[in-house]
Design goal:
There is one protein chain. The chain is of the alpha+beta class. Helices cover 35% and strands 28% of the residues. The chain has a single domain, classed as 3-Layer(aba) Sandwich (Aminopeptidase). It contains seven helices and seven strands, in the order βαααββααβαβαββ. The chain has a seven-stranded mixed β-sheet. The chain is globular. The two termini are 29 Å apart. The mean pLDDT is 97. Bound molecules: coenzyme A. Pfam families: Acetyltransf_7. This is N-acetyltransferase.
């Protein structure tokens, strides 16, 4: 069996939402049931402008990879940031609070791809699939920047942090608290193309 990267349409995402959310919950070690809360949000995201999703699928051939039965090993998606989005409002507000000037905020936030989700099933982590998914997700973007948020971790000591640093992501905001979430996040970003 080989691993194939395939682009998902919004309909594909709808059909394979259960698999994608199961990877998300296992990868993030969230409690079972979290996927039920996220399902409608992931489907709403799939309707946003510039949405793109890529999945890593285990299959004997590229043709088999589009079968609904082929096991999914990883999922990544994102979309074009826009002023009416909660995430952009949160990050712009955070930048203002740390004293970023209006020009800097505008340069960063007026044209970016939000890398919203990136997850590899625990049994498939550590063999370069996460990097392959990001590269495929970003390979044809027209935005100026890519931005993401990731939980703060002591010493940046996990695979997500190592991956983002290796790909040249730098700090946009550190120790950021999104409204209603007690966890600290880092907002990271870099210019495109990768
Ligand atoms: C973060 C995450 C997406 C990274 O994906 P990944 O596939 O595990 O990791 P990468 O693509 O960066 O691959 C790096 C590892 O693969 C190895 N690797 C790279 N290319 C390889 C190849 N061609 N063949 C084999 N191994 C390879 C590297 O040596 C490295 O191993 P190491 O971390 O043990 O040193 C994934 O680990 C994950 O889902 N984690 C949990 C959820 C999460 O944190 N998501 C991000 C939230 S913001």
């Amino acid at each position: 069996m080989a691993t194939h990267l395939i682009e998902l349409s919004p309909d594909d995402m709808k059909r394979r939402l259960g698999d994608a959310l199961a990877i998300y919950v296992d990868a993030m070690r969230y409690p079972r049931g979290t996927e039920d809360q996220r399902a409608s949000m992931w489907l709403e995201h799939a309707r946003r402008a510039g949405w793109k999703a890529v999945a890593a699928i285990e299959a004997g051939s590229a043709a088999d990879a589009s079968s609904i039965d082929a096991p999914m090993l990883g999922i990544a998606y994102g979309y074009c940031g826009a002023p009416d989005q909660w995430w952009q409002q949160q990050v712009s507000g955070g930048l203002r609070r740390i004293g970023a000037d209006a020009q800097h905020i505008s340069n960063l936030m007026s044209s970016y791809f939000e890398l919203t989700e990136l997850h590899i099933h625990p049994r498939a982590q550590g063999r370069g699939l996460g990097e392959a998914l990001i590269r495929r997700l970003l390979d044809d973007r027209s935005e100026r920047n890519v931005l993401l948020s990731t939980p703060e971790v002591n010493g940046e000591a996990n695979r997500a942090w190592r991956l983002y640093r290796r790909l040249g992501f730098t700090d946009v905001i550190r120790d950021y608290h999104f409204a209603g979430d007690p966890r600290a996040f880092a907002i990271l970003g870099r210019g495109l193309p990768l």
